[in-house]
Amino acid sequence: MVPSWAGRCTKGPSVIPELPEVETVRRELASWLPGRTVLEAERMDAPAGPKYAGLERLPGQRIEAVQRRGKFLLLPLVHMPADARRAQGGSARQDGHSEAKGDELVVHLGMTGVVRRTPPPGHLRVRLRLSGPAPSDLYFQDVRRFGRFTVVPAGDYRHLPTLAALGPDALDPAFTTEGFRRALARSGVAIKTLLLSQRVVAGVGNIYADEALWRVGVHPLRPARQLRRAQVVALHGALLEVLEASLALQGTTLYDYRTVNGEVGAFLQELAVYGHAGEPCRRCGTRLERLVVGQRGTHVCPRCQPAPRRASRRVTRRAPRRTRRAA
Ligand SMILES: [Zn+2]
């Protein structure tokens, strides 16, 4: 069932595109961007400041690939000599010309960022003119200005602390159950808060954290280190399952997210808990509840996901008393 508030307008409580949405965009861009050289970079209605820094460095650099880490799109670039650019009507690599290591274009969709080949109406921040058999354009639109379209020296994320601190991408083989278990065992923060931090696994946001935790019957407020080994293994599997299932449907469109071709993601129909507060749990029929965890709206089944016992909090409160007694 689709939540009644979904897809209404662009002014609602927007959600951040997560791994399935950003990966959908990456796959579309990867099919036509690599090998194209930026001929012009036009700053349109882009706010001043670091989110659109370095655009002037783009012309003359060739896009080598379209990669993704978590919710970031990373486009490594190579400087093209001017004579090669003049000769390059097409997108093929020009042999015999020396190429210098270039910069990296970092794109984050924020809440409302959209990348398109044809200009969507309004709120356009950047236009790139690209070489190719038929020269083409790339537009970055961002209604609410939380997005980013930044050029940095390759791999230099000093001014991008979230990117610099990212854990392994959820779809990377480096995201192992054992690594996940070790990271959780080190942390006393609520499991959902830890997932959203991107430091343990990159790409999981509010929607897929809620869905995965419901699938394995773990309450979002449960301290990470309290998860039993079997729960950690199940949660690792559930995260991969829900992300891959959503990716197969091009992600979830609640409001603004669109694919490069302007299509909506169809996973909205599959959401079991996110946005369904007040409705019966699909598994047990109990009314789903909405609570706030780390300032994010969170959806749980109070029966399938038992809240952590107060006893665990009492233990925490008792600790200073023991210290006093020892002193
Ligand atoms: Zn339930």
Walkthrough of the structure:
The chain is 26% helix and 19% strand. The protein has eight helices and eleven strands. The protein is an alpha+beta fold. The strands form three sheets. Strands 2, 3, 4, 5 and 9 form a five-stranded antiparallel sheet that branches. The chain folds into two domains: 32-164, N-terminal domain of MutM-like DNA repair proteins; 177-313, Helicase, Ruva Protein, domain 3 (Orthogonal Bundle). A hairpin with a 5-residue loop joins strand 7 and strand 8 (136-142). Helix 1 packs across helix 7 (229-248), helix 4 crosses helix 7 (229-248) and helix 6 (206-216) crosses helix 7 (229-248). The protein binds zinc ion. Zinc ion is lined by residues 281, 283-284, 286, 301, 303-304.
